[in-house]
From TrEMBL:
Residues 124-269 form the Rod shape-determining protein MreC beta-barrel core domain. The lineage of its organism: Bacteria, Pseudomonadati, Pseudomonadota, Gammaproteobacteria, Pseudomonadales. This is Cell shape-determining protein MreC. Residues 310-337 have a biased composition (Low complexity). Keywords: Cell shape. InterPro entries: Cell/Rod_1, Cell/Rod_MreC_2, MreC, MreC_beta-barrel_core.
């Protein structure tokens, strides 16, 4: 006669089997790429979990914004109006410089970008492992994000993308112990390597000579030598320099400029990934377009035209561009501009000025 309730394996056996299975999965995940497709599919399910866990914070922010003090809102509005006027005044000065820089780059057949393309992303999660500094953002492979893409906030560089999923990505922060970035001192161009320490408020500069010209307060910017981060972005500020006469290298500690544990909205930087041949072809096409228009300034798509407000009449920059165009044309193997019939009246005096 069969028992009414069949007896299965004991709890100890079940625990042992589950423990062995867990260890096997961790080993396979660490050494092979077999579980990456499953992880990508699981991320689609976890997106709803991220949204639900973040819902209380969003609701609280919405309620707090609705019951904000009217006086504070009016004061903030006046402050923003004042800052807007100041920024508009500065923008008018920078617009003329940007336009001049664009013309010079075109005349020199330079294909370098004036401004990198960026896209706003939002932080939706953090890695629970206390020994790694990683965050999760709401932009993934289907948004055009690539491995190694730089991520920054309003103050400076934060890290780079190390893992892609369809709609999310994992970003390794600068302060992680496995991360290093080539930097240089903004004051004198001294190059060094900034490495993470596991502390979100500290970076260390490795192998800096004891006699190196570096001091407290120096700004460290990305040097671009690693071909991963764009050059010129703020990375950290030197906080402490310790010189030991018995050691060949100084101990240099720095504080990241980015708010690594406070920033919620981030920027993904899309740098120019063209090859040297593609850049040369694009530069040649730009020069042909420039010659077809009589040597006048042709603004690229990377500079928004409404922001450019030249202080002088629109016909004033044309003679300078026409006078400089023949000097660059031989380098691009183009026919001299003098062989073309003049499309504009002569303005020799303006060119000399």
């Amino acid at each position: 006669m069969k028992p009414l309730f069949a007896k299965g394996p004991s709890l100890g056996v079940r625990l042992l089997v589950l423990a062995v299975l867990s260890v096997a999965l961790m080993v396979v995940d660490a050494r092979f790429d077999l579980l990456k497709p499953a992880r990508k599919q699981a991320s689609l399910v976890l997106m709803d979990a991220y949204w639900i866990t973040d819902l209380p914070g969003r609701l609280w922010e919405g309620v707090a914004s609705q019951f904000g003090s009217r006086t504070e809102l009016v004061a903030e509005n006046e402050k923003l109006k004042t800052e807007n006027l100041l920024l508009q005044g500065r923008m008018q000065k920078l617009a003329a410089l940007t336009e001049q820089n664009v013309r010079l780059r075109e005349l020199l057949n330079s294909s370098a970008l004036v401004n990198e393309k960026v896209e706003v992303a939002e932080l939706i999660g953090m890695d629970p492992n206390p020994f790694t500094h990683r965050i999760i953002i709401n932009k993934g492979e289907r948004d055009g994000v690539v491995l190694g893409q730089p991520v920054l906030d309003a103050r400076g560089l934060m890290g780079q993308v190390v893992e892609l999923m369809p709609y999310t990505s994992r970003v390794l922060l600068l302060t992680d112990t496995t991360h290093s970035i080539p930097v240089q001192v903004n004051r004198n161009g001294l190059r060094a390597i900034a490495s993470g320490t596991g502390n979100p408020e500290r970076l260390e500069l490795r192998h800096v000579a004891d006699t190196a010209d570096i001091k407290e307060g120096d700004l460290l910017v990305s040097s671009g030598l690693g071909q991963r981060f764009p050059a010129g972005y703020p990375v950290a500020t030197v906080k402490e320099v310790i010189h030991d006469s018995g050691q060949p290298f100084a101990i240099v500690r720095a504080v990241p400029t980015a708010a690594l544990n406070r920033s919620r909205y981030l920027l993904l930087v899309f740098s120019d990934s063209r090859t040297a041949e593609e850049r040369a072809n694009d530069a040649a096409q730009a020069q042909e377009t420039l010659d077809a228009h009589g040597g006048g300034p042709m603004l690229p798509a990377s500079v928004p035209k409404p922001l450019i407000m030249p202080a002088t009449p629109s016909t004033a920059p044309a003679p300078a561009a026409e006078a400089a165009a023949p000097a660059v044309t031989p380098a691009a193997a183009k026919p001299p501009a003098a062989s073309k019939p003049p499309a504009k009246p002569p303005a020799t005096t303006g060119g000399r000025e």
